[in-house]
Amino acid sequence: MKTVLISTSTHKAENYCKALQEAGITPVVSGNMEDVSKYDGLLLPGGGDIAPILFHERKNGSRDICISEDIIQLLLFDRFLEQKKPIFGICKGMQLINVALGGSILQDLPARGIHDYHNGDRYHITRALPGSLLHTLYGTDFVTNSAHHQSLAAIGKNLTVIQYSYDKIPEGIVCEGVPIFGVQWHPERLLSKKRPAYAVSGLPLFIHLRKLLEVTHQ
After folding, report:
1. Under a CB-based contact definition with an 8 Å cutoff, are residues 138 and 126 in contact?
2. What are the catalytic residues?
């Protein structure tokens, strides 16, 4: 099986590990700099907020910051990108992809009550760009979970937003020419039979990652 590095030092990775394993991928969790040659791909998981200095702003609503983790994740992103190995960003991970490619972050959503974690995930409808990866997997309109108080602001180089919430918050991205994609929601928490019947399964995204791993290493 292909091996994916989950880069985190501050948050539990059990759900990510289970999701990767269910998709036929071997997970390795580390909060350190790693030898990229040992891995087939990178998963940037959810976590705290990215240090605003990394996208050239002052702190204005960001919280739960660990800049040492941010720096390691950004360095790993650059090294996996150089080798054109697949990268999948989830929640903070999608935001980090955006920052790594020159984008910025809206540090505190005015309508965060629609999106932020409150005694559990929120759920809301989203819309995928026709013909996009997410449209192929889920159709035009579908419900995802939500647990964030920030969003993408300026969009990074070569990134395309392919999914929005109904209040126009970016929910999914892909990167032109390289196997990089991200979602603002948490597909790793939408695998079990306990998920609401109205919400999509997160498994197709992890299977898509596995297929990228297979294609890029033939």
Report:
1. no
2. 91, 186, 188
